[in-house]
Inverse folding.
């Protein structure tokens, strides 16, 4: 086992622990409130699955957009960007061509080369996705707070929508960024 393999297993274990902890500890009580959900658990599961899909797509776009902006700020030239298999590869004429392609990462991959070795700074490639995460956390915290506020005023379905979606998407963001930043060699 290589060192990177061990770091990968640690990252996956932390991601699984985070998902289970939030799922069983935070989200589970929402499913036991029959005033909101009634007796249709399939609708609740479907609702959470839609939030998971939206969270994965949203965070994949944010991570790669952060890498793109980080490349520009760090004086790198982008050769390709792949978000969930949607690949944009730079051609010799300078334009990007779309194709479907595999990627080496969790939700996507941005490939780049330094424009000038002396001026290039890779820190921006890590910091910009974290800035997007901060903006996302603030936005989703507001969504959760609005959901809780609506729930305290008697609108329980809004409480469910705002709180559960915010919590699910924040959990996915934490998992994706944990994978992207913690063992940087994995991505």
């Amino acid at each position: 086992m290589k060192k990177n393999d061990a770091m990968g297993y640690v990252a996956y274990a932390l991601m699984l622990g985070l998902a289970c902890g939030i799922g069983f500890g935070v989200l589970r009580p929402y499913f036991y409130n029959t005033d909101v959900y009634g007796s249709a658990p399939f609708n609740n599961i479907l609702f959470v699955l839609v939030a998971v899909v939206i969270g994965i797509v949203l965070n994949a776009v944010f991570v790669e957009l952060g890498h793109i902006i980080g490349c520009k700020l760090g004086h790198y030239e982008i050769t390709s960007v792949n978000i969930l298999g949607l690949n944009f590869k730079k051609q010799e004429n300078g334009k990007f061509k779309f194709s479907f392609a595999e990627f080496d990462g969790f939700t996507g991959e941005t490939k780049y080369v330094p424009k000038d070795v002396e001026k290039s700074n890779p820190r921006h490639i890590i910091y910009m996705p974290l800035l997007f995460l901060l903006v996302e956390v603030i936005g989703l915290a507001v969504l959760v707070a609005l959901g809780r506020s609506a729930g305290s005023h008697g609108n329980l379905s809004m409480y469910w929508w705002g709180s559960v979606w915010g919590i699910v998407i924040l959990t996915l963001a934490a998992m994706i960024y944990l994978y992207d930043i913690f063992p940087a060699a994995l991505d």
Summary: The two ends are 18 Å apart (CA to CA).
